[in-house]
Design goal:
Elements (H helix, E strand, L loop, with lengths): L1 H7 L4 H13 L3 H14 L4 H13 L3 H14 L4 H13 L3 H14 L4 H13 L3 H14 L4 H13 L3 H14 L4 H13 L6 H17 L18 H16 L1
Helix pairs in contact: 1-2, 2-3, 3-4, 4-5, 5-6, 6-7, 6-8, 7-8, 8-9, 8-10, 9-10, 10-11, 11-12, 12-13
GO molecular function: protein O-acetylglucosaminyltransferase activity
Pathway: Protein modification; protein glycosylation
Keywords: Glycosyltransferase, Repeat, TPR repeat, Transferase
């Protein structure tokens, strides 16, 4: 085990990094962070620890620290595909779309079968209004990994926005088959079915959708129902106000 490796060789940064990965997987984030920092004290140029610690910082909302750590990892190891993709994700989050696109392209150049990078690059291109480019990226991600639920849902969103509702429905259904607990795909599928006046299992769908939204509001998460669409569902007035409020906050940010 990793702890055994540390007993045998206490100054072994790889073992600290591996232990940190295992701790993070178990949800022990503070302990994982301490182990990554120990690995970096032993070897300040340990690229995996820099990248993985950056992931923790990003999840904690420390975007500046995460960006600095990803950049440091890339200084140490310029051909680090995951670090390029992770940095791109942070840049995209900050609205630096051109820079994000550059790093996604680097990640894919280094690792041509990097499905996550293709899907995320698709999101960036969609945000830049390059719909054809986004469609190509999502399709490529699915070609690489046919079981990639998020890519199927992203592809569905392109079809939905383009008015190709039957294709959108098919892609959302595929996403949900692969990942049944997928609120975004479910809520969008429900809306697509409303658009084509498919009322089969209507009450069951509405019950599930209202439950999803209520849970998201309770946890202070962005609801996966658009404020305008909430008018078509059996939500109460207070819920509709909360849905609109959460989406307004996102726009303000």
């Amino acid at each position: 085990t990793y702890r055994k490796a540390l007993e045998l060789q206490a100054n072994f940064p790889d073992a600290y990094c591996n232990l940190a990965n295992a701790l993070k997987e178990k949800g022990l984030v503070k302990e994982a962070e301490d182990c990554y920092n120990t690995a970096l004290r032993l070897c300040p140029t340990h690229a995996d620890s820099l990248n993985n610690l950056a992931n923790i910082k990003r999840e904690q909302g420390s975007i500046e620290d995460a960006t600095a750590l990803y950049n440091k990892a890339l200084e140490v190891f310029p051909e680090f595909a995951a670090a390029h993709s992770n940095l791109a994700s942070v840049l995209q989050q900050q609205g630096k779309l051109t820079e994000a696109l550059m790093h996604y392209k680097e990640a894919i150049r280094i690792q041509p079968t990097f499905a996550d990078a293709y899907s995320n690059m698709g999101n960036t291109l969609k945000e830049m209004q390059d719909i054809a480019g986004a469609l190509t990226c999502y399709s490529r991600a699915i070609q690489i990994n046919p079981a990639f639920a998020d890519a199927h849902s992203n592809l569905a969103s392109i079809h939905k926005d383009s008015g190709n509702i039957p294709e959108a429905i098919q892609s959302y259904k595929t996403a949900l088959k692969l990942k049944p607990d997928f609120p975004d795909a479910y809520c969008n599928l429900v809306h697509c079915l409303q658009i084509i006046c498919d009322w089969s299992d209507y009450e069951e769908r509405m019950e599930k959708l209202v439950k999803i939204v209520a849970d998201q509001l309770e946890k202070n998460r962005l609801p996966t129902v658009h404020p305008h669409h909430s008018m078509f569902y059996p939500s109460n007035h207070e819920q509709r106000k909360l849905i609109a409020g959460q989406h307004a906050l996102m726009c303000a940010d």
